[in-house]
Structures are given as C-alpha cells and as structure tokens.
Amino acid sequence: MSLSLSYHPYSRAAGTLWALEEAGVACTLELVDIMKGEQKQPPLTGKNAMGKIPTLVDGDVVVTEAAAIALYLADRYAPGRLAPALEDPRRGTYLRWSFFAPSVIEPAVMAKNSGWEVKEMAAGWGNFESMIASAESAIAAGPYLLGEQFSMADVVFGGTLRFMMGFKQIEPRPAFTDYVARLDARPAFQRADARNLQMRKQLGLQ
Fold first, then answer.
1. Residues 6+ apart with CB under 8 A from 128
2. What's the whole-model pTM score?
3. One domain, residues 29 and 62
C-alpha cells in the first residue's frame, strides 16, 4: 500500500519525514506551497478540512495532526520497535509524553510568549514553569522517554523541544540539549534532515 504525505519543508511535515524514516516506510511527498496558501484549497481541503499539513494518506486511511501521524506510523509499521505493545505497561508513559508535547508544551510556550492571561485551573496546559519541570522529569532517567528504548514518543516530544529551543522559546537547559543531541545523532533523523534541506534548496528557500 503506497503512502503519500502533503508536505512543505517549512511546516510540521518536515518532522513527519523523521517519523517516516524511523518507521522505515516509503512515502510519496506531495508538495503543498504554503507560501501561496495552497493548503487552504482543494485538493488538500478535501482530505483535511482544516487546510493543514502534514496530512498522510495510507490507502483509504487519512491521518492528520503531526503527533497522530507519528503514532499511527509506529503502531501500523513498527509495533514493538517504535510503539510499546498494548499490554506493555510502558505504553502509558509512551502516550503520556506523546500527547504532552502538542497539548501542554506548545500552548504553554504560546501563552507565555503572547502574554495570554488565563486562569491556570482553566488552562489545560497549567503554567510555563510546571511544564518545563515536567518536561525535564520526563527525560531525567534517560537516555530516552522509555529509558533505554527509543520510541516514536521521542520523535514527537524531542522534535517539539528541538523546535522550541531552535527558536529560543525554551531555555536550552543541559537536560534538553543533551537529549536532543542524542536524537540528532540518529541516522534516521539525519536522513530526514538531509531530505528537508535538499527540498529547501530545490525550492530556493535557503
């Protein structure tokens, strides 16, 4: 079954390439020119009414949201290797930190940087300081979120940390930089990074 990914190198789809490389899945990239707003037009809106990328098509299955795509790829194509089995007690930790990245890290950073005034009890992400402390606790034992085993949760969680530190939205604490350095050393990440760089050059975006 062939897979296709709606893609642009300056979007979250760039991180999806890493997930695909880790899963070892071949995928056709369908370039969407976000500079021209093509993500808000057909045919993409026919697959994803939000008009967002990445959008993955796997046969008759359409998966949106970068974290969901990564977890889908792990369960579908790398169970046991990148995703703990359903009966594995580590699956709770795996899901916890996979969802923590988009539902707590991202909004907490956005709230802090935008000066949003919200009641902590009403905000699902709590506050910035507790988010940072929790993120540090997740990788304190290391080297990965599940200890010695790398998983797709590291793609989601680690990719978020890398992005936030790259744009100076999160302080590069030693625990974060050491963790991301371990992820950056992975051959799958380096292959994905090279593909994204090649595409940026091809599009004249360097």
1. 108, 109, 111, 112
2. 0.96
3. yes
| Token pair belonging to 101 | 């990245």
Residue 86 lies in a domain: no
Residue 80 has phi, psi (to 5 degrees) of 85, -30
Residues 121 and 52 in one domain: no
Alpha carbon 44 to its chain's center: 20
Beta strands in the chain (DSSP E): 3-7, 28-31, 55-58, 61-64
pLDDT value at residue 1: 58
Cβ–Cβ < 8 Å for 106, 160: yes
- pLDDT (0 to 100) of residue 119: 84
pLDDT digits (tens, 9 = 90+) for 142-181: 999 999 999 999 999 999 999 999 999 999 999 999 999 9
Q: Are 180 and 162 in contact (CB under 8 A)?
A: yes
